[in-house]
Amino acid sequence: MIEGLSVTSLTAHYGAMRALSGVSLTVHHGEVVSLIGANGAGKSTLLRSIAGYQRARGQDIRLNGEIVAGLAPHAIARKGVVLVPEGRRLFPDLTVTENLKIGAETRRAGDWTLDRVLQVFPALTERLSHRPGQLSGGQQQMVAIGRALMSNPQILMLDEVSLGLAPKVIEELYAALPAILSTGLGALIVEQDIGRALKASDRFVTLREGTVVLEGASATADRHAITTAYFGAAA
Ligand SMILES: Nc1ncnc2c1ncn2[C@@H]1O[C@H](COP(=O)(O)OP(=O)(O)OP(=O)(O)O)[C@@H](O)[C@H]1O
Fold first, then answer.
1. Starting at the edge strand that comes first in sequence, how are the strands of the sheet with 203-208 ordered?
2. What is the three-class DSSP state of 20?
3. Candidates 3.40.50.880, 3.50.50.60, 3.10.129.10, 3.40.50.300; CATH matching 4-230
4. Pocket test for ligand 1, best of 13, 44, 206 (most atoms within 8 A of CB)
5. ipTM entry
6. Residues lining ligand 1, Cβ inside 6 A
7. Mutational pocket test of ligand 1: of 11, 13, 17, 34, the residue with most ligand atoms within 8 Å of the beta carbon
8. What is the atom index within ligand 1 of the atom nearest the CA of 15?
9. pLDDT, tens digit (0-9, with 9 covering 90-100), for 3-31
């Protein structure tokens, strides 16, 4: 049995179009796995399928050996698999505190509290009564990640958290990752910048056209091989 997330032979369709074909991967507790691939490779579909927002065939998605595939998204979150979606999806009429506390509604027992989120993202401390529209993009992303942490996840999935943010702000977000992982959770991250994805992760998985084409340890990854796998043999 795998301690953490395991996905086996996952297939997903949009109508007749196959977006994922037999994708398998694991994310153990305490490790970061980065999902690398061009636009349309299927990264968001994979994360959304794991989180229960998208119907997938194969249906072998497990957390600590227990099948979670087929459960509703809130039930999967309650088991401990939580997605920070692309575009953040904060509640615009709620304050930062209220947005963070919503994450606690699917809360499992665990270490994450509002105070702990604020230790990881101190920039939010002064802005707890603000609405998301009054925050910078980076601060909004901190709220989205903080909201996910408030549910005490075992597996945290981050879909393109750096999209549209300035390099300095992206550095700040990634600098928080070790503190986030120190509670023993595992992370599956989608990051467009291959260099940053490898730096932030223990292992990488490259998707092309819905299929895993290359995977390995990030520290010893061959960038050329990844780029070739990413674009296909014709690149
Ligand atoms: N709601 C949808 N309806 C139909 N096709 C979709 C839908 N969402 C995604 N697709 C298609 O499924 C494939 C995989 O898309 P997906 O968004 O998972 O890729 P991605 O790797 O996350 O890309 P991006 O970096 O652009 O988000 C693409 O061909 C895309 O056009």
1. 81-84, 155-159, 186-190, 32-36, 203-208, 211-217
2. strand
3. 3.40.50.300
4. 44
5. 0.93
6. 14, 17, 19, 37, 39-45
7. 17
8. 4
9. 899 999 999 999 889 999 999 999 999 99
Which has the closest alpha carbon to 69: 1, 2, 11?
11
Q: Give, for 57, the enclosing helix (H) or strand (E).
A: none
Tell me: the pLDDT tens digits for 58-90? 678 999 999 998 899 989 999 999 999 887 788
Atom of ligand 1 nearest to the CA of 20: 14
Strands (E) in 15-119, as ranges, are: 17-28, 32-36, 60-63, 66-67, 81-84
CA of 122 to the centre of ligand 1 (A): 34
Q: What is the pTM assigned to this prediction?
A: 0.92
